[in-house]
Amino acid sequence: MIQDLPFSSIDVALAAHPEKSKLVNTKEFSTSFKQTLADQLQQEADGIVKLSKHAKERMTERQITVTRDEWRQIHQKMDEAGKMGVGDSLVITRRAAFVVNAPKNTIITAMDLNDARTHIFTNIQGTIVL
Asked: With a threshold of 0.85, does the pTM exceed it?
């Protein structure tokens, strides 16, 4: 899984292993890495929740990772909220906050907790704390 990787970016990995830096075009690889990370995020969420394009971009930019178990927990609570008639909700996990649309089972946007602490959330009908 992505969160199990020992490096946060290809540049950090190459700095740790300078002898391999000649083998990699970091600009091309960086784009490929971003796409791979976005694909991995979607695969983790597939069948559990949908990620909007905006949410995928934010998770990639902010290096937010979610385990399959966390996706299941988020989905379960979104399902419960949807059954209660709750539309848009704020989901707070240990590392991130997500604005979700429960009836559509979709993550609308994502931010790390530091960003969430300074953000004012509007048009939210419920809050889910995991």
From this structure: no
